[in-house]
Amino acid sequence: MPRAEPAAAVTPAASLLDPITAYLAYLQFEAGYSKHTLSSYRAQLMTVAAALPASISHWSQVSERQLQLLLAQERDALKPRSLSLRVAALRGLYRFLQQQQLCEHNPAEYLKAPKASKLLPKNLDVDQMERLLDVSADDDTLLARDKAMLELFYSSGLRLDELVNANIGDIQWHDALIKVRGKGNKQRILPIGRLAQQALKHWLTVRPALVADDADALFLSIQKRRISHRQVRQRVGLWAQKQGLDQHLHPHMLRHSFASHVLESSGDLRAVQELLGHANLSTTQVYTHLDFQHLAKVYDAAHPRAKK
Question: Which of 159, 202, 226, 256 is catalytic?
């Protein structure tokens, strides 16, 4: 018996694809969204476009009921976080179409997706951070660079993208500040700690050995180009192994450690929000759970009635 032919992949109509392309271009060039977010939004919107009935030739013909049914069909297959991303992508697309006067209504406005549970960000404790940063750079070029990157991550709470795109001219040495470009091309000014300043100054004394075309880049690779995201991840992971940390370490964990340690010491959630560059306080509030965990440990160790 001959095998059945696999079902052909559904290609959405160009009239559905063109608005997606225009929306993603707007997010990239006007709103400054990251490549990762653009890729995620594209995948979600393409999936919806391919699932729509063949009779639909434009997004304005889609009803809220149809979108609800499409979401319901995926509830068992997709995680809540993926469903929430799909809803966000659809809402954004329709708002864009409304702004362009290509659609009068937004059928995604009141879509409901299951709430994704907020995972507590992983971070290193102060002792682990001390061990990680206990690196003697000497005159080794890559050692000096890596030491400066690690210190700056922890000192100022930078995102990976912010560190990679940092330029020498972004540092204000007199005031010990650095200007970074965050999500949506939003700029903010961050303090640089004393030890991070020392590490950066030492790195700049050996940096000329790697200077070629991109003379503005703060951090350079052995290929004499601006260091890449992948290279930074590799170096951070390498130093975690070298310094004997028994866990996989990625750059964002250094940002998490910065946030939780500052909040733990100051209790100033608004200040941490500004330092991290979070648009909404709710994004920063996840660190309060870490702070409460610390307080609970202190309570268990110190309160007479807490001891078992």
Answer: 159
For residues 166 and 155, the answer to whether their CB atoms sit within 8 Å is no
Q: Which residues of 21-51 are buried (b: 16+ CB within 10 A; e: fewer)?
A: eebbebbeeeeebeeebbebbbebbbbbbee
Catalytic, 183? Answer: yes
Catalytic position from the list 23, 94, 154, 287: 287
Task: Check 202, 226, 255, 256 and give the catalytic one.
Answer: 255
pLDDT in tens, 97-108: 999 999 988 999
* DSSP state letter for 219: S
pLDDT at 4: 43
252 is catalytic: yes
Cα(123)–Cα(128) distance, integer angstroms:
9
Residues of the chain with pLDDT under 70: 1-11, 114-122, 137, 265-269, 271-272, 277-308
Measuring CA to CA, which residue among 296, 294, 239 is closest to residue 264? Answer: 294
Enter the pTM of the model.
0.56
User: How far is CA 161 from each of CA 48, 61, 108, 218, 260, rounded to the nearest angstrom?
Assistant: 30, 39, 31, 13, 20
Within 13 Å and on the Cβ side, how many CA atoms surround 46?
11
Distance CA 301, CA 43 (A): 49
State yes or no: is 225 an active-site residue. no
From 183, 188, 229, 250, active-site residue: 183
pLDDT at site 304: 57
pLDDT of 306: 52
Residue 192, φ and ψ in degrees, nearest 5: -115, 125
Does residue 94 carry a catalytic annotation?
A: no
